[in-house]
Amino acid sequence: MFASLGGYLLYIALLLIVPLWAQSKVKRTYRKYSQVATSSYMTGAQVARKILDDNGLYNVDIEETRGVLSDHYDPRKKVVRLSSDNFHGHSMAASAIAAHEVGHAMQDAESYAFLRFRHALVPLANLGSNMSFILILAGMFLGMMNLFLAGIIFMSFAVLFQLVTLPVEFNASNRAMAQLVSSGVIRNNEERQTKKVLNAAALTYVAAALVALAELIRFILMFVMSNNEE
């Protein structure tokens, strides 16, 4: 009983505490380094433009977008969108995030394998996110294990998407660091501080992947145990 209770509490901790901790870490790190200007004193928009031009990506535009940490790269319209603070900011946080999003543009231009795979998974991942819990709950309440299994299969697509996201994001951050250094945007001890921003952001993706994987494993174990009881 205590073992099962301990396992359940550990699962709850993973499901709730880890993502909250990761989000808190990102916000604290971003808040800290958004107050520290780079020695180059370039805005996030200028950093993004410089790295794009240095890599021949003249067709990729840069736009300001609303929200906080709403920065992203739109592969359909070939646009790097930066939140207002990062678009206009001269900070290490602004430079790191701008370079990271440009890293995705570089991946897109090179047809980076994991990025292509993630794009291909989007329809299945969306279907899995929308349908998996409906099928699992229907299977549980109706006692129809085929529906339960179908829900697990749909969920696995969403989990796979989360796992494939990890190498995409880490690769974009590695590209960001290399470009920031080679372009002279950051220098000397600024590298260590910039890595803290990128690493903190990566934690959110790791946390999301862990939670998704834990959910999938829990339902797989429930399915196996139900079949064994029959």
From TrEMBL:
Question: Has keyword Transmembrane helix?
Answer: yes
Task: State the source organism's domain of life.
Answer: Bacteria
InterPro entries assigned: Zn_peptidase_2
Recite the UniProt keywords alphabetically.
Answer: Membrane, Transmembrane, Transmembrane helix
State one Pfam family annotation. Answer: Zn_peptidase_2
What sections of the protein cross the membrane?
6-22, 120-141, 147-168, 197-224
Task: Determine if Membrane is one of this entry's keywords.
Answer: yes
Instruction: Return the protein name.
Output: Zinc metallopeptidase
Q: Which organism is it from?
A: Aquibacillus salsiterrae
